[in-house]
Amino acid sequence: MNDIQLYVMPIEELAARTIMACRALAEDLPVNLLSADAHQHRHIRGLLNDISGDDPAGPRALQSVDLLVDILRAERETETLGYEDVFEGKNDPEYGAAGAVYRHRVLSERGEAIEAWSNKLLHLARMMRVLDARLCGERMVNRRFAG
């Protein structure tokens, strides 16, 4: 689902999808794989409890997602095996290589899993922020026209 769909779908559907995504994350996140130690495991479990509550657009849930993203970002750094240069473009016979060289991070298997879950969390955070903004906008319009 892209960002434009988040803005145009009915707010009730966005809320339901966000709640379902939060609960699915709490159930499916492989905490044992992603956490470095028992202390971090317990901390991640607490964050997941905040995220999977009944208020996915609330400040506590959003803060918990941000903290979880930061934890996974730090763990991803420890799983970086190195970097490799990757060329994107084409080899022009007349002018040589035409394109750009990008630095690509090489991750361990655990690092790849962390990267995938980080991307899912970032998408969930966008959903939560859009829901929050739409709810705030709806409240603002209702107050303005209420009296």
Explain the overall architecture.
The chain is 68% helix and 17% strand. It is built from six helices and two strands; from the N terminus they run αααααββα. A two-stranded antiparallel sheet has the order 1-2. Helix 2 (11-28) runs antiparallel to helix 4 and helix 5 runs antiparallel to helix 6. The longest helix has 38 residues, at 109-146. The chain starts with a helix and ends with a helix.
Write down the Rg.
20 Å
Specify the oligomeric state: single chain
Q: Indicate the percent of residues in helices.
A: 55-70%
Helical segment count:
6
Cα-to-Cα separation, first versus last residue: 37 Å
Write a brief caption for the model.
By secondary structure, this protein is of the alpha+beta class. It contains 6 helices and 2 strands; from the N terminus they run αααααββα.
Q: How does the SSE layout of this entry go?
A:
Blueprint: H1 3-8, H2 11-28, H3 31-34, H4 38-51, H5 59-78, E1 80-92, E2 96-107, H6 109-146
Antiparallel strand pairs: 1-2
Helix pairs in contact: 2-4, 2-6, 4-5, 5-6
